[in-house]
Design goal:
single chain; about 300 residues; alpha+beta; D-amino Acid Aminotransferase, Chain A, domain 1; 2 domains; seven-stranded antiparallel sheet; 16 strands; about 25% strand; disordered N terminus
């Protein structure tokens, strides 16, 4: 079980604790997702909290899901704390803590795969390609450079790891796990959401280099769940700074990763727990990155309303 830093208790049974969020059981049909300001890097949870990070992750997901209304089914019932406490009165004393960072959702059976769509080659895909010219063991076009755009986005499923990193798998492996019809539908939905999200983000000067989705099923219907097109689940790049052939600056916790890389190279941190103490400027720059991503994508600053 992943250790939890700075967690607030609610009068609900907790179903799952993650690095960033807790999932609470409301009843047989509903869950409450609460995103904290915790931040992890290199699979280690930092001791410091990043102001407003949880609210950004929740509210940017809610914004995207509203863009997809009538287009595909999703799990969100409400991301408004006032509406949530009306529907779940036992939470009323905790409204301030829930403000901005909570989402009431339909409960589903979750498919045990991450549905990754890559429009550009970066991260783990670039590392594998550089070593062997493949992704999940399958050949990619020769001659690509880091951050190159794929002619057609690649659907690249991965296993869902409880700890450590997810592992890329082939579509054939996914079909064996879920059945061919389900795997085909998950790929179709993933490509559709990525394509729409990519086009919307492009009008805001943002490249969505890659992203991952999760899906569940309830009453025979596949629905989109969990985070959607957030800085934690996606790689956002500024279009006006994009230069293939190297790593790109991103709208996420890159300032934190960069600082930790320096600490590791200097021998001041071995990459394991406990993490080093973060300078305040690193924490605040990371917070600014998340807030900037929200504003660039949605076109408006995050309304905090007391979210912490």
């Amino acid at each position: 079980m992943t250790p939890v830093v700075g967690r607030s208790e609610l009068p609900l049974e907790i179903l799952r604790r993650g690095k960033v969020r807790e999932v609470y059981i409301v009843d047989a049909e509903r869950l409450l997702l609460v995103a904290s300001d915790r931040v992890s890097a290199f699979d280690v949870i930092m001791n410091e909290l990043v102001p407003n990070k949880g609210a950004v992750l929740t509210q940017i997901t809610a914004w995207w899901l509203r863009q997809f209304e009538g287009d595909l089914a999703h799990h969100m019932l409400s991301a408004d704390a006032g509406e949530i406490v009306k529907q779940v009165p036992v939470l009323a004393p905790h409204r301030d803590m829930l403000e901005g960072r909570s989402m009431l959702c339909r409960r589903t059976e979750v498919f045990p795969v991450e549905c990754v769509v890559r429009g550009y080659i970066s991260g783990s895909a670039w590392k594998e390609y550089k070593a062997s010219g493949t992704l999940a063991g399958e050949k990619l076009p020769a001659g690509m450079v880091e951050s190159d755009r794929f002619e057609k986005p690649i659907f690249s499923p991965a296993t869902k790891a409880e700890t450590g990193h997810d592992e890329n798998i082939t579509i054939t492996q996914m079909q064996k796990e879920l059945g061919a019809p389900t795997a085909t539908e998950l790929e179709r939905l993933s490509r559709h959401v990525y394509s729409r999200g990519r086009d919307i983000a492009a009008t805001r000067g943002i490249i969505i280099a890659d992203t991952k989705f999760e899906f569940g099923h309830v009453d025979g219907k596949i629905i989109l769940i969990d985070e959607v097109l957030t800085p934690d689940s996606s790689r956002f790049w500024a279009a006006d700074k994009y230069q293939p052939g190297k790593s790109q600056p991103s709208f996420d916790k890159q300032p934190l990763r960069d600082w930790l890389d320096v600490e590791k190279k200097a021998g001041r941190w071995d990459g394991n727990e406990p993490p080093p103490t973060l300078p305040n400027e690193v924490v605040m720059e990371t917070s600014r990155r998340y807030l900037n991503a929200f504003e660039r994508i949605t076109g408006a600053p995050l309304k905090l309303n007391g979210a912490k």
